[in-house]
Amino acid sequence: MAPAGALPALPLLLALLGALRPGPGDAQTAVFPTEAILPRGNSVLLNCSSSCNETAILGLETPLTKTERDSGHNWQMFELSDVQEDSRPLCFSNCGKKQTSASISITVFWFPERVELTPLPPWQPVGENLTLQCHAWGGAPRAQLTLVLLRGEEELSRQPAVGEPAEVTATVLASRGDYGANFTCRAELDLRPRGLELFQNISAPLQLRTFDLPTTSPQLTSPRILEVGTVQRVVCSMDGLFPALEAQVHLALGDQRLNTTVTYNKDSLSATALVEGTAEQEGDQLLACAVLLGNQSRQSRRTLTVYSFPAPNLTLIEQEVSEGTQVLVVCEAYAGNVVRLSGVPPGLQAPRAQSMLNATAEDNGLQLSCSAALTVAGQVLYKNQTQELHVLYGPRLDKRDCLGNWTWPEGTQQELECRAWGNPVPQLTCRRETDGALLPIGRLRPVKEHEGTYVCRAVSSRGEVTRKVFLKVCSRNSTNMIVIILVTVVAILSTVVTATYLYNRQRKIKIYKLQKAQEEASMKLNTQATPP
Ligand SMILES: *[C@@H]1O[C@H](CO)[C@@H](O)[C@H](O)[C@H]1NC(C)=O
Ligand SMILES: *[C@@H]1O[C@H](CO)[C@@H](O)[C@H](O)[C@H]1NC(C)=O
Ligand SMILES: *[C@@H]1O[C@H](CO)[C@@H](O)[C@H](O)[C@H]1NC(C)=O
Ligand SMILES: *[C@@H]1O[C@H](CO)[C@@H](O)[C@H](O)[C@H]1NC(C)=O
Ligand SMILES: *[C@@H]1O[C@H](CO)[C@@H](O)[C@H](O)[C@H]1NC(C)=O
Ligand SMILES: *[C@@H]1O[C@H](CO)[C@@H](O)[C@H](O)[C@H]1NC(C)=O
Ligand SMILES: *[C@@H]1O[C@H](CO)[C@@H](O)[C@H](O)[C@H]1NC(C)=O
Ligand SMILES: *[C@@H]1O[C@H](CO)[C@@H](O)[C@H](O)[C@H]1NC(C)=O
Ligand SMILES: *[C@@H]1O[C@H](CO)[C@@H](O)[C@H](O)[C@H]1NC(C)=O
Ligand SMILES: *[C@@H]1O[C@H](CO)[C@@H](O)[C@H](O)[C@H]1NC(C)=O
Ligand SMILES: *[C@@H]1O[C@H](CO)[C@@H](O)[C@H](O)[C@H]1NC(C)=O
């Protein structure tokens, strides 16, 4: 390319000179086309011609690379190649002494090399302004270049491209509806006034993620205390989230992350975890729930007291003792617990209590209980242990257990109330003194020849006791005879009465029938006697 500084001055100078001096005729220089628009780097053909009635000298003054392509009488075709920018080449002709010229306006157009949206924040809070910014590098002619910011198909801002890079901004108030929206920037090169098209260059789309996290803390539901070795449920929930599915929940006890199951609803979530108390965690632990959404988080904390509370030990020296034995009962728990032993008045706030028990028959089956109390986080907890005391006694067959005198009517149903007591349970048998006949204990039906004096004997491994029982059976024979006689008499009487009645009735019928027969016979005789 020729140095641009000196050369354009020469045709100007010549033109000036030509204008001053009158030349042959009114010859004119013309060029075709007078205006050209072409993509950057392209070539253009220019036809310079002169209306000179002589042979004119033609020339093209330009800093661009020019090549003579064709020529004829008073015209010359030039090709300007690799046109990089706008320029105004000058076509001149010398007709005789007169020089005239014509200029061409060449406009170069090109598309921006890059159209880019500045990256969006990874997460945009709902209700806050989001500034979108787009840059376009290059592009010409600038007067025809416009930058447009778009949300989907919706135009947010349209501004002419100014500066390098050209910049356009727009502010949008982020809403829940913008979640997933695609933003783009479009550079428009409108060459329609120049007889060309509308060219568009679009940036890569950027997708926005908006979120809404209420300022309230998540709701943390958990027990206040947790026993070592037990498992409890912890629930952390939060409402009004958007988009709930993108939220994360972290539940931790101390520095131990909990395994969490999260269930999502339309705009809420609920996380559940099972927390197990371990011996290492004994004491106050911080239970924390964090809900993370976008680049924000909300936290809730609670204190969970992990405690260890083994049941107290209730010990009897012997589980099974003989009546009258002294039994030592000890109720023992770990330090910090307060124990209470049944039957012992509450006394010292101590982890140990004991008592000496004089085992009686009544104590057999006694439920001894040892209760330990522990205060955890202001809450009193109890753990109890019970043991049953077995006292060996008996056998016992007292008057009230086995009544001595019984009078039963014969043939009735009776029950001998006789019970022997003891541990182990004694075997009870009642035998008649005279013949050793066994009297069944319990239901007896019917009472017959059971009369007699019985010796009831209760036997257990701890000895034997006996008791006499007198059984009298009163006979019912006399009354029965009277009843039988009465019944027989009534039966005989009724038979006689019935028989008499039936006999009389039968006789009456016979007499009636005889009368009827006689009447009929006499009527027949009468009819035969009267002739027609
Ligand atoms: C050209 O035209 C001019 C005037 O129009 C005239 O004076 C001149 O003689 C012409 N020249 C020729 C060669 O015809
Ligand atoms: C150049 O212009 C002249 C005058 O208008 C014309 O006669 C000639 O044909 C043109 N050349 C071409 C190649 O179009
Ligand atoms: C979250 O992101 C926004 C925008 O990107 C920023 O202004 C804000 O400081 C961030 N907040 C936190 C807690 O990181
Ligand atoms: C968002 O920007 C608009 C102006 O563009 C302003 O009126 C409005 O108060 C801003 N809103 C917030 C929440 O910053
Ligand atoms: C945004 O673009 C992505 C991928 O190109 C598409 O899946 C999504 O549907 C678009 N979002 C909207 C709101 O059109
Ligand atoms: C710009 O758009 C035009 C057509 O509209 C296309 O030919 C050109 O390759 C695009 N340039 C870029 C950098 O995308
Ligand atoms: C969490 O649950 C998974 C599967 O349900 C199990 O493999 C893992 O051991 C659990 N982690 C803890 C710390 O309990
Ligand atoms: C235990 O009780 C029995 C009978 O009630 C009594 O004879 C005995 O003396 C008592 N022993 C003690 C040590 O109190
Ligand atoms: C109870 O007895 C068991 C087993 O003998 C023992 O390991 C435990 O420490 C005892 N508990 C108390 C509170 O003494
Ligand atoms: C344990 O004993 C305490 C007091 O002795 C009592 O209040 C509590 O109900 C008992 N608990 C059980 C499970 O028996
Ligand atoms: C049973 O009754 C008789 C008199 O009928 C009496 O002598 C005897 O003492 C009574 N026996 C008992 C154990 O009550």
From TrEMBL:
All residue ranges annotated as the Immunoglobulin domain in the record: 33-109, 119-211, 316-392, 403-470
GO molecular function term, any single one: integrin binding
Keywords: Cell adhesion, Disulfide bond, Glycoprotein, Immunoglobulin domain, Membrane, Repeat, Signal, Transmembrane, Transmembrane helix, Ubl conjugation
Domain of life: Eukaryota
GO BP, sorted A to Z: cell adhesion mediated by integrin; cellular response to amyloid-beta; cellular response to glucose stimulus; cellular response to leukemia inhibitory factor; establishment of endothelial barrier; leukocyte cell-cell adhesion; membrane to membrane docking; negative regulation of endothelial cell apoptotic process
GO cellular component: external side of plasma membrane; extracellular exosome; immunological synapse; membrane raft
Transmembrane segments: 481-503
Subunit comment: Homodimer. Interacts with MUC1 and promotes cell aggregation in epithelial cells. Interacts with ARHGEF26/SGEF. Interacts (on T cell side) with CD81, CD247 and CD9 at immunological synapses between antigen-presenting cells and T cells.
Organism of derivation: Sciurus vulgaris
Localization per Swiss-Prot or TrEMBL: Membrane
Topology relative to the membrane: Single-pass type I membrane protein
Pfam families: ICAM1_3_5_D2, ICAM_N
UniProt name for this protein: Intercellular adhesion molecule 1
Claim: Cytoplasm is one of the keywords in the record: no
Predominant place of localization: membrane
Summary of the function given for this chain in its UniProt record: ICAM proteins are ligands for the leukocyte adhesion protein LFA-1 (integrin alpha-L/beta-2). During leukocyte trans-endothelial migration, ICAM1 engagement promotes the assembly of endothelial apical cups through ARHGEF26/SGEF and RHOG activation.
Signal peptide per UniProt: 1-27
Keyword ATP-binding listed: no
UniProt-listed InterPro entries: ICAM, ICAM1_3_5_D2, ICAM_N, ICAM_VCAM, ICAM_VCAM_N, Ig-like_dom_sf, Ig-like_fold, Ig_sub
Family the entry assigns: Belongs to the immunoglobulin superfamily. ICAM family.
